[in-house]
Specification:
There is one protein chain. It is globular, with a radius of gyration of 16 Å. It starts with a helix and ends with a strand. It has a single domain (24-93), classed as Nuclear Transport Factor 2, Chain: A. The protein is 34% helix and 39% strand. It has 94 residues and is α+β, with helices and mostly antiparallel strands.
Length: 94
């Protein structure tokens, strides 16, 4: 059982590493003025109490652009990601 878990863990790490490498994702911090209005509206509707919001843009492997907001909800730092049209992708505490 332990050997299986170690093998499975190693496989997950390998897949994750390859995915990150293969994605070719590059991120750049940007001012809020460069974030599409649809993204800001979607973010504000979901996280109206967010503070210390900082934005970055990323180009993903298929040539698309995503926008991520790093922000605080209370004392917990979060990150939420959106497509340029304001479609929510994901969020998680950092």
């Amino acid at each position: 059982m332990a050997v299986f878990l170690l093998t499975a863990s190693a496989a997950i790490v390998s897949i994750t590493s390859e995915t990150v490498y293969a994605s070719g994702k590059t991120s750049t911090k940007i001012p809020a003025s460069q974030v599409p209005m649809a993204v800001k509206v979607s973010f504000k509707s979901m996280y109206s109490t967010a503070t210390k919001v900082q934005w970055e843009t990323s180009t993903v492997y298929y040539g698309g652009t995503t926008y991520s907001a790093g922000f605080y909800l209370g004392t917990v730092k979060w990150e939420a990601t959106y497509y340029a049209d304001g479609t929510f992708i994901a969020a998680a505490p950092k």
